[in-house]
Amino acid sequence: MIARTVSQTAASAPASGVRVGDERVLRLTPRAGAKVAALLAQQGRPHGVLRVSVIGGGCSGLQYQVELEDGPKDRDILVETAGVRVVVDSKSAIYVSGSEVDYIEALQNSGFKIRNPNAASTCSCGESFSV
Questions:
Q1: Of 22, 9, 127, the residue nearest 85 (C-alpha)
Q2: Phi-psi category of residue 2: left, alpha or beta, with phi > 0 → left and psi -120 to 50 → alpha
Q3: How many domains does the chain contain in total?
Q4: What is the pTM of this model?
């Protein structure tokens, strides 16, 4: 089972209607997990999450959106990976299922990079893809 619905009420527990998934949905490398944890700590969000979304746009038709949020929302899929919590909405999960998120630190183009086995093609900058 990739995701199951839970309903808990503790502060760090998922909101009602949040499904708990596993790393088959999305996984972070240890380096990406450490960066997310550092960013959440820096922003004072102890129960924060990394949201990975797919939106229309970019030169290949679809693009990733990665942002920090205070917690999961109703109908999100919550995955604990690399020591942090990641959320994906159900529509984005179709496109990112099986993907790996890494964090690259370089002189140019530092940031989160997504390796997506579902992408049929990507643009030259790696920011958008098509399926």
A1: 22
A2: alpha
A3: 1
A4: 0.83
Task: Indicate the pairing of strand 84-89 with strand 62-69.
Answer: unpaired
**103: Cβ–Cβ under 8 A, 6 or more apart, which residues?**
29, 31, 32, 34, 35, 36, 111, 112, 113
Residue 55 falls within a domain, yes or no?
yes
Q: How many residues does the chain have?
A: 131
Report helix, strand or coil for 128: strand
For residue 77, is it within any domain? yes
In a domain, 3, yes or no: no
Tens of pLDDT, residue by residue over 3-18, are: 555 444 344 556 679 9
Q: 23 lies in which domain range?
A: 14-130
In a domain, 2, yes or no: no
Q: Helix, strand, or coil here: 27? A: strand
